[in-house]
Predict the 3D structure of the following.
Amino acid sequence: MIAALCVPPTRDAVQLYFRLHPNANINAEAVIGFLRVLSEQLAGPAVLVWDRLQAHRARITQEFFTCHLQLHPHLLPPYAPELNPVENVWSYLKMNPLANFAPLDLDTLVQTTRHHGRSLQRTHDLLRSLMAHTPLSLRIR
């Protein structure tokens, strides 16, 4: 699963974008595919604040940014998941709607996770609180 929490310059909203990758590890190609779709969805430049996943630091990913100047990546310090607001999204999904969920197959897990992720996309107050829960100074209104 790969995701982004997006805050517009007006700082009055939080949006969640995500993509599931069942049966696959997140690699640089998956990150670039997600970034292509994300950049089409966003209306203007974006600052990416993300962890130090190898796929984020890969040469091919860095080369992608040289051609997509509207995206500005900034890495979080190493070993600091508490600073990453997307970690709060995963924690919420695992500890709330998916808690005690024991699917018998991968398709059921994917469908249920996608359903709850889409529900979370529509819960703006919860997204704001997940973003505000990090010690980052994002000043969301």
In short: The chain has six helices and four strands. The radius of gyration is 15 Å.
